[in-house]
Write a structure and sequence with these properties.
The protein is built from three helices and 59 strands. The strands form eight sheets. The chain has a 36-stranded parallel beta sheet that branches. Strand 11 and strand 12 form a beta hairpin.
C-alpha cells in the first residue's frame, strides 16, 4: 500500500507489513512524537543556526515550523493551532495562533469565556474550574526572582526553592489582578514588579520553609516563624509543619480567636525540632476569649502537637509550651492531642526547661508516646508538666499512655479543679517525684494509674486531697538512701492500691503512708501487693487514716515492718475467716457467752453471723476482747427483743475480719 500522510503534524502511516521504507517513516514518526512531548525551543529565528547541537529546537518564522536537531540532522514538524511552546532558557510560554507565536497570557477557554484571558483566583484552584483548563506554569529559582517578575508574560509561576534552587521552600503562585493592596508576607503573598500580587496556592497545611525558615539549627528563624504564625491566625484551621531544627531566639505567641484550631505537626520528634536559644519561654498558645469556640456549629479539628521536640538551651528557666485556653463554666475548651512530642534540653544535662509543658484552663488532653527529659542526673528543680485551672472553669481530665519522664523535681504537678489524671503504661525515674497533686481548696478525684514503672527519690505519688483513685499493677523501685514515702496519701479516701510491686532499700521510710483521712465513709482497699527489701514499713497508717481494708493478699518480704496502725480511731481490717457451726442456745437467760476456736490472730476481730435455719430472732451482742485469746474468739448472743432466750440448737455461719 502506498504510504500516506496524516493531516495531524504530518505523521506517516498506511504501509503493508514488511513494505520497503516503512522503517524510515516510523523512525521519523517516533522522533516527531518525542519532540511533541518535550515542547521546548531554544529560540525564534528566521534562519537555522550553522553550528547546531543535537537536542536543540527552533521556531522558524519563514515557514512557521519547528525544527529540531537529532543525530546531526534537522527534522521538522508543523505546529497545531494553539499549541504551546516554552523558551528553554527563560521559561516564557508561547502559543501558536495559526499565523505566529504569541505570549501565552491565558487559556482559550475558562468557564465559558473565549479568547485570551488573564487567570483569576477562581481559575487556578480557589473556585470552579472548567475541566478542560490547561494552565502553563513558568518556573523561577527563588522568591527573590519572583519579586522581580511582573505578570506580563505569565500568570502562574513555580519557585524551585526559597533562597536557592534546591527545592526547599518552593511553592506555586498565581497572579491576582484584583489585588493591588495586600502586603508582601514573605510566604503566601509576594509583591512582584509593577505591584503584581503573586498568591500561593494554599491548603490547610503550612510548610514553614515556604515562609523562609531554614531549619538548619544555626540560622535565626524567628522572623520567618512569626510570619507563619501570623498567616495561620488568619485561617480557621491550620496545620503547621517543618523538617529540621528550627532555631528561635525569642518567645513566640499564638492567640486563637473565635472558632480557630491549630495543629503543629512535625515529621517525628527526632526530625522536627523547635530549638529555643533566647533564655526565656518557648511557645505560648492562648485563647483570646473564654469559651469562644462554642460559637461554632460545625466542630473543627482539635488543637494538637505531634511528631516534634521542644528543645531549649536554657539553664532551668522558662516554660517550653504554655497553653491557656480560658474555658468557662459549661463551655470547656476543645480537647488537646499530643503524640510523639518531646520536651528536653539541647546538648548537656544543664540544659532544661523550668517547666516543660504548662496547661491552664484547658479542655481534655490526650498524650501518647511523649517524653519529658528535664535535664540530667542531679537535676531536682525542673517540672515536666503543670496542670491548673481556676475555680469556675469546667474541670477537665488528662490521659497519658506510654509516656516517659526523667529527672527534675516532678513529672506532673497538679492543683485544684482537675477532674482526673489517667496514666497507662508510663514510666518516671531519676526525679524527686512522679506526681504531686495537691488540692488545697477542695478535694478532687479521678487518679487512675495502671501498669507503670516508677523510680523516684523522695516518693512517686504525693496525693493531698485526692479521692476516688486506684493504683494497679505498677513497679515501684527505690534504691536510694533518701528518706521516702513511695505513695503518700493525705486528706483522701475511697482508693484502691492493689497488685503492685514495691522494691526498696534502706531509704524507704514507708512504702504506703496514709494520714488525715477522717471521713470513715470513704472506704479504701490495700491488697495483693508485694513489699520487698524495705528499710522501713510497708503500710503505715497515721491517726485518723479512715476506713482502710488491708487485704490478706499483701506479702511482706524482708521489711522492717508490715502494717503499722498508729491510730486508735482507725477502722482497719485485714484478713477474713469464716466457718459454719452448731450453736446451742441455753434457756432462761437474756444473753449467752460463746467461745469458738479461730486461727491465730483472729481473736482480735469483730464477728458477724447469720442463722442458716432462718431463726432471725437473735443476734451477736457483745465482742468480748478481754476474754479472747490468740486462738479463741469470745462473744455473746442475745434476742433482738431482749427477752429471755429459749433453749435450742441452730446452725450458724460466722465471719470475722481481723485487725492486725
Amino acid at each position: 500500500m502506498v504510504q500516506r500522510i496524516s493531516p495531524f503534524v504530518e505523521t506517516k502511516f498506511g504501509w503493508d507489513f514488511g513494505e520497503s521504507g516503512w522503517n524510515l517513516g516510523m523512525d521519523e514518526n517516533l522522533l516527531k512524537f518525542s519532540y511533541l512531548f518535550d515542547r521546548n525551543i531554544d529560540g525564534v529565528v528566521s534562519s537555522l543556526p550553522t553550528s547546531p547541537i543535537n537536542g536543540s529546537a527552533y521556531y522558524l518564522t519563514t515557514d512557521k515550523r519547528i525544527y529540531y536537531r537529532v543525530a546531526n540532522s534537522w527534522q521538522s514538524t508543523p505546529i497545531p493551532l494553539w499549541f504551546q511552546l516554552t523558551d528553554r532558557a527563560t521559561g516564557v510560554v508561547y502559543k501558536f495562533n495559526g499565523t505566529t507565536l504569541v505570549a501565552a497570557t491565558g487559556v482559550n477557554s475558562v468557564a465559558g469565556r473565549g479568547g485570551d484571558v488573564v487567570l483569576t483566583p477562581a481559575d487556578v484552584g480557589l473556585g470552579s474550574v472548567n475541566s478542560q483548563l490547561q494552565v502553563s506554569v513558568r518556573t523561577v529559582d527563588t522568591i527573590a526572582d519572583l519579586r522581580l517578575l511582573s505578570a506580563a508574560n505569565s500568570t502562574r509561576v513555580r519557585t524551585l526553592g526559597y533562597y536557592t534552587k534546591n527545592g526547599v521552600g518552593g511553592s506555586e503562585f498565581y497572579y491576582d489582578p484584583s489585588d493591588t493592596t495586600s502586603l508582601d508576607n514573605g510566604g503566601t503573598v509576594i509583591v512582584g514588579l509593577g505591584g503584581a500580587r503573586w498568591k500561593a496556592v494554599v491548603s490547610d497545611v503550612i510548610h514553614c520553609e515556604t515562609f523562609g525558615t531554614k531549619c538548619d539549627g544555626s540560622t535565626d528563624d524567628s522572623n520567618a516563624f512569626d510570619k507563619v504564625i501570623a498567616y495561620a491566625m488568619t485561617r480557621e484551621h491550620s496545620v503547621i509543619t517543618w523538617k529540621g531544627q528550627m532555631r528561635l531566639t525569642r518567645e513566640h505567641q499564638v492567640t486563637i480567636t473565635g472558632i480557630q484550631s491549630i495543629i503543629f505537626k512535625g515529621y517525628g520528634s527526632d526530625l522536627s525540632q523547635l530549638l529555643f536559644t533566647g533564655g526565656g519561654n518557648g511557645l505560648i498558645v492562648r485563647a483570646a476569649v473564654a469559651g469562644a469556640w462554642w460559637l461554632d456549629i460545625t466542630p473543627a479539628p482539635r488543637t494538637g502537637f505531634s511528631g516534634m521536640s521542644i528543645v531549649t538551651r536554657n539553664l532551668t528557666t522558662g516554660t517550653g509550651l504554655l497553653i491557656d485556653l480560658k474555658g468557662i463554666v459549661g463551655r470547656p475548651q476543645r480537647s488537646l492531642l499530643f503524640d510523639d512530642v518531646i520536651f528536653r534540653g539541647h546538648q548537656s544535662f544543664e540544659h532544661t526547661w523550668a517547666v516543660g509543658l504548662a496547661l491552664n484552663n484547658t479542655g481534655q488532653a490526650w498524650f501518647n508516646n511523649c517524653r519529658w527529659i528535664m535535664g540530667g542526673p542531679g537535676q531536682t528543680t525542673a517540672t515536666g508538666i503543670t496542670i491548673s485551672a481556676v475555680e469556675g472553669n469546667d474541670a477537665a481530665a488528662y490521659y497519658f499512655s506510654h509516656c516517659e519522664h526523667l529527672y527534675g523535681a516532678a513529672w506532673i504537678s497538679a492543683t485544684d479543679h482537675i477532674e482526673g489524671i489517667y496514666l497507662t503504661q508510663c514510666a518516671s525515674g531519676g526525679s524527686n517525684r512522679a506526681m504531686s497533686w495537691v488540692c488545697t481548696s477542695s478535694p478532687e478525684s479521678g487518679l487512675h494509674v495502671v501498669g507503670g514503672h516508677y523510680n523516684n527519690f523522695i516518693g512517686s505519688f504525693y496525693l493531698d486531697g485526692v479521692y476516688h483513685f486506684e493504683i494497679v499493677g505498677c513497679l515501684f523501685f527505690h534504691s536510694e538512701t533518701t528518706p521516702s514515702n513511695i505513695i503518700d496519701i493525705r486528706n483522701g479516701g475511697s482508693y484502691t492500691i492493689t497488685s503492685n510491686q514495691f522494691v526498696g532499700g534502706p531509704g524507704v521510710t514507708n512504702a504506703i503512708t496514709v494520714q488525715n483521712s477522717p471521713n470513715g465513709d470513704f472506704g479504701s482497699v490495700i491488697d495483693s501487693n508485694n513489699f520487698s527489701d524495705l528499710g522501713g514499713t510497708a503500710i503505715f497508717l497515721t491517726p485518723t487514716s479512715g476506713h482502710v481494708t488491708v487485704g490478706s493478699g499483701n506479702a511482706y518480704n524482708n521489711c522492717a515492718a508490715g502494717l503499722v496502725d498508729s491510730g486508735t480511731t482507725n477502722r482497719v481490717h485485714s484478713r477474713k475467716w469464716s466457718t459454719v457451726f452448731n450453736l446451742p442456745l441455753v434457756g432462761g437467760v437474756t444473753s449467752q457467752n460463746v467461745n469458738i476456736t479461730v486461727p491465730t490472730g483472729f481473736f482480735n476481730a469483730a464477728p458477724e453471723a447469720a442463722d442458716l435455719q432462718g431463726l432471725a430472732d437473735w443476734t451477736i451482742g457483745f465482742y468480748n476482747r478481754a476474754a479472747s485469746t490468740a486462738t479463741n474468739l469470745s462473744f455473746s448472743v442475745r434476742y433482738l427483743s431482749g427477752a429471755t432466750m429459749v433453749a435450742k440448737t441452730t446452725e450458724v455461719y460466722i465471719t470475722a475480719t481481723s485487725k492486725q
